[in-house]
Amino acid sequence: MILEECAVFAKMLAAGLAAGVFARFLHLLGSASSSARIFCDALIAAETGAAYFLSLYFSAGGVFRLYSLAAFSFGVFLSISLLLRFSPLLRRLAARAISPLLKGYRKVETSLEKRLRPLLEKREARRRKRRGKRAETRAKREEARLRKKKISLEKRSAKSGSRRVEIEH
Q1: 0.70 cut: is pTM over it?
Q2: No. of H helices and E strands in the chain?
């Protein structure tokens, strides 16, 4: 009986450690911008809650025990504090692992850019052509509207002038 309870405690502690590591990873992803921060904070809360209930279900059969919550919380706290303590070392290791990937990504990006540049230039030329046609059409419509307005003003002045002439006679 006691061994089973100790196993539940150890499983919940391990689940808390794993959830804390994943939460710290999401925290690092969220440091890109304020909108990413909001999104990642919501993901951290959802991930931690889901990890707790899933680990509770699989380790204790879904039976809530207060020490399981304490073990999980302690695991999250422990993993985050250890990751903060060793963060300079982890950053150096991550930089060594990621820098070759970034170099390869930049090579692929430049080759794709070279291949896509003619297509993008053609698309931009078509856009400029369409914009020019639209501008011409707008100018013609405006000219026709002004011509129509001028004619209607001339008709009004002619009508009002003829009425004045009739009144004077």
Answers
A1: no
A2: 4, 0
